[in-house]
Write a structure and sequence with these properties.
Elements lengths: L14 E4 L7 H7 L5 E5 L7 H11 L6 E3 L8 H13 L4 E6 L1 H16 L8 E2 L9 E5 L11 E6 L4 E6 L7 E4 L1 H4 L4 H20 L5 H19 L2 H10 L4
Parallel strand pairs: 1-9, 2-3, 2-4, 4-6, 5-8, 6-9
Antiparallel strand pairs: 7-8
Helix pairs in contact: 1-2, 3-4, 6-7
Length: 248
């Protein structure tokens, strides 16, 4: 998409490390943040996998103790975030590590907000209502769809009204994202398909957005190319579309 003028755009992203076994660098960053008692936010069903156990081992190679919070559900609810925040505060934790999909990461973001700002997590619904930055947050995503590990959004379910609330603030952008393909290999086919469609939808939205830019276009088109064209189309049609998108 051509840009006649270079309009102002602002991007806030974490430090990103991507590649096989990136998760194993978590110990190095626990030491970097001088953390002694991290809290690990993760789904219960992930804790059986060998790659998860290797994350725990790497954390404990540098930390004195590890607190695990797994009391959240898909689309984390406000009271679950508050439970996690109360545990973080009472245990005097000093670092948050989120391992999982968007739900675990959003829950960790909510815990971070309340731990530093107090009140109820729903107090921070809206844009730029988070005043104080939270404790360091490291994300290890285990799905490919949400992009919660690099975003300034947290989606929390209001249990009483049965609705979702969006918290938008650069204060919730993680400090580090360790993007490792190994955890994704343990997803079942259905979840793999769902998160792939999620990623494709995000890429299309980014490309057609009125807030797009040359920087976002290159990533959006590459994602569409990888997710849709390479994966599904016959080679002859792929060549036609790559020419249309000027990708080859």
């Amino acid at each position: 998409m051509a840009h006649a003028t270079l309009e102002l755009r602002k991007y806030v992203i974490p430090e990103i490390i991507i590649g096989t076994d990136a998760r194993l660098l978590i110990g190095r960053y626990v030491a970097h943040f001088n953390a002694r008692k991290p809290m690990l936010v993760a789904d219960q069903n992930l804790q059986q996998f060998g790659w998860f156990k290797s994350i725990k081992s790497a954390i404990l190679s540098e930390a004195q103790e590890l607190i695990i919070f797994d009391g959240h559900s898909p689309n984390p609810k406000d009271f679950e975030v508050m439970m996690g925040a109360n545990l973080f505060i009472s245990e005097k934790c000093d670092l948050l590590i989120a391992v999982g999909g968007g739900s675990s990461i959003d829950c960790a973001k909510g815990i971070s907000i309340v731990a530093s700002n107090g009140g109820n997590i729903l107090d921070y619904e809206g844009v730029d209502r988070v005043k104080m930055p939270g404790p360091p947050l490291i994300c290890i995503p285990t799905t490919a769809g949400s992009s919660a590990d690099v975003s300034q959004f947290a989606i929390i379910a209001d249990y009483s009204s049965k609705s979702k609330k969006a918290i938008i603030s650069k204060k919730v952008v993680p400090d580090l994202a360790l993007i490792d393909p190994v955890p994704l290999m343990t997803m079942d086919p259905y979840l793999t398909a769902c998160t792939g469609m999620d990623a494709l939808t995000h890429a299309i939205e980014a490309y057609v957005s009125t807030a797009n830019s040359a920087l976002t276009d290159v990533h959006a088109l590459e994602a569409i190319f990888c997710l849709l064209i390479i994966s599904w189309l016959p080679s002859s049609r792929m060549l036609q579309l790559t020419s249309a998108f000027n990708l080859c």
